[in-house]
Amino acid sequence: EEALATLRMLLRDFESSGLKVQEQILRRIITEVQPLHPQAKIDLEIRESYRNMHDGLRKDPRVTECLWIAAERAGLTPRWVPIRGGTDGARLSELGVPTPNVFTGGHNYHSRLEWAALPAMVRATQTAVNLCRLWASYPRTR
């Protein structure tokens, strides 16, 4: 009797070069496991779904410059904290529309304990409005 098992996973990294490293790790695992189960056929298929938004943002830093100023104008002390996620922003950045993740005031995302602080949500909204105003008036030199 023949059986089939499929394992799907998302490979993510803060640097695009890290994705190649993860692929190499998976290939090494297959190389080690295949001899232990010679009747099994183990295939690896890598499909690119979206790129790291940081790559797109590095190409055109104007939006992050505006974002920094927008947060300051909202009364915040901005800081860059790399996160994983932001699939839409990553895809848009890849297409040439630089789209960084902006804070929302939320905490413990995707958990039973997820919550949002109203004062932080207000600051996030102020930052977004400031960002739109700045972006609309930012010099278009590129």
Would you kindly provide a written description of the structure presented here, covering whatever features stand out?
- The protein is mainly α and 142 residues long.
- Helix content is 45%, strand content 3%.
- It has helices spanning 17-33, 53-59, 62-73, 87-94, 118-137, and strands at 106-107, 115-116.
- The protein has a two-stranded antiparallel sheet.
- It is elongated.
- The termini are far apart.
SSE ordering = HHHHEEH
Question: Mind describing the biggest β-sheet?
Answer: 2 strands, antiparallel
The amount of beta strand, in percent, is: under 5%
Task: Give unreliable regions as ranges.
Answer: none
Average pLDDT for all residues: 87
SS class: mainly alpha
Estimate percent helicity.
Answer: 40-55%
**Shape call:** elongated
Count up the helices.
Answer: 5
* Rg (CA only): 21 Å
Q: What's the N-to-C terminus distance? A: 62 Å
Strand order of the largest sheet: 1-2
| E-strand count | 2
Summarize this structure briefly.
The chain has 142 residues and is mainly alpha-helical. 45% of the residues lie in helices and 3% in strands.
Features:
two-stranded antiparallel ribbon, elongated, about 45% helix, about 140 residues, mainly alpha, 5 helices, about 5% strand, 2 strands
Question: What does the secondary structure layout of this molecule look like, with pairings?
Answer:
Layout: H1 17-33, H2 53-59, H3 62-73, H4 87-94, E1 106-107, E2 115-116, H5 118-137
Antiparallel strand pairs: 1-2
